[in-house]
């Protein structure tokens, strides 16, 4: 019993992320009991730093380390860690970026022989004479950058969960000069490095270790709101914060090492949950002794087109391999013939289905002929899902779940139930967001709002990639659909998710929660969106080799397949179940890509737990694949998950 509880807690610890106020609430009882959290944090950070140097064959006695230290407790962690490293013989210079430092930590650092460079003329630090001229202040910044660039290791302890908004002042200057900073559009470009297993360092120096979080990162929403120094390793304390999982911030965290403070996680609501085998397994319906092909689930597909018949093949093959009893295909003759040639098991034409997948490879409104048959079929089908505040929505709520991809996204009705899953990539979500904003369904709030400007130009794919959670939530709350936003880390936001109802984002701007759909859905007991605390589901199982044409078609077919297998009959769908199954589809998809490419690199890797036996190290980079390979590996991925 106890062992089971430990296992569950460990799984939660490694796969759930909590916002900073929840983390502070979990710390409180331990601090009240006098548990020395800062010492524990610092000890772990020093150990990880030493290990990083060792991995690069740098002796600690020969190592030059720079600590960027802020005035809060994050700086305190850094100072104690730096003191421990100085005690081991490293040459450590603390660059104080604020007006104060954690006093006890600083005293320990000085005792250990650490050197200090203060950047702020207004600094009030015991034993340090400040009050220097503006000219000298500028000179000190240049010296600090020189020392940091020549160091073997930079420890970034400027800010942690106490960050408010983008980094400003000297911390902002240091991060901008040593790391990356926003361009004129507010986009923060991360270094262009190969995707390696374990987010391994590719040989560059100085190494960067972030304390708790990389300074300047959007701790709670995963954005990069300003300058930030991308880390090779982030040692995170107590519990994961959302920035550890959510793109783009997760890519600035590098490898994650989590220090368990034995927080009581039992009643805490995470903001984000990473899909793992155990969660995905729940979406895989094992066949019953008495099953027939119908009871195992039938998927209907309105995919492909005369122009892109391959998308029909890919989506059908994925649906057929996703643990289903049968697939039915509707489409133009050319695509029908190709589907049959590739999957003789496919049944052509209409019939009863437990789920739909539509739109992959179908033309959007800009590219379609006026009488395009696929668009007409998809539009007629989607009409059945339209919700309206003053109509009887029984029919819409009783429809089978549907995956709406690519060319069908521009036909999505204004308001739909949560068992409509939309699967845009960033460009498609940008288009949808523009349409919703033009319809007045929600504000266009974005990064521009915290840059002080209001965005008047259209939302671009890059805006979505910069603030994926914001836009996914925007689409979910505006339309009521379950939104699966594809990327290296794919996220699934259900209209009932916690962040659809949260107060502010990391920029401190209010989050738009205008959601007429929520009101509509609430009047219909059949679709339960009332949970209100659903975390964002993130899935990073895919290697970067998966970014290849047609991979999205495979995903849409695969999710259609899992939904069909999970058809629940008359009881209605819960928004959280739909989100879970969709996210599991993305997980299986990523695993299939990993199997096909023989790669151990993943968009997101669960953290190493500090102090546990030597963490598993992966090395296989793998090889390129095409989307058909991914479809063919679905069976093996399912087998691995249920094993
Ligand atoms: N509560 C605790 O006792 C524990 C806290 N721990 C550490 O303490 C951190 C939280 O400490 P704090 O609450 O002191 O906060 P931080 O140390 O994260 O941040 C506060 C500091 O950052 C500066 N700052 C905030 N926003 C800024 C901005 N936009 N631009 C420039 N500077 C900015 C503030 O002026 C202040 O100096 C955690 O992240 C963790 O590293 C750990 O030691 C574990 C125990
Ligand atoms: N860098 C990456 N790492 C891992 N997976 C990725 C990466 N970039 C994209 N993907 C995945 O590849 C797939 C691409 O789908 P999509 O953009 O719809 O392509 P297509 O329209 O050609 O099918 C998605 O599942 C997405 O999550």
TrEMBL record:
Descriptive protein name: ADP-dependent (S)-NAD(P)H-hydrate dehydratase
Residues that, per the record, bind AMP: 486-490, 552
Family according to the record: In the N-terminal section; belongs to the NnrE/AIBP family.
Binding site residues for (6S)-NADPHX: 311, 425, 553
Co-factor(s): K(+); Mg(2+)
Enzyme class: lyase
Pfam families documented for this protein: Carb_kinase, YjeF_N
EC number: 4.2.1.136
Native organism: Bifidobacterium oedipodis
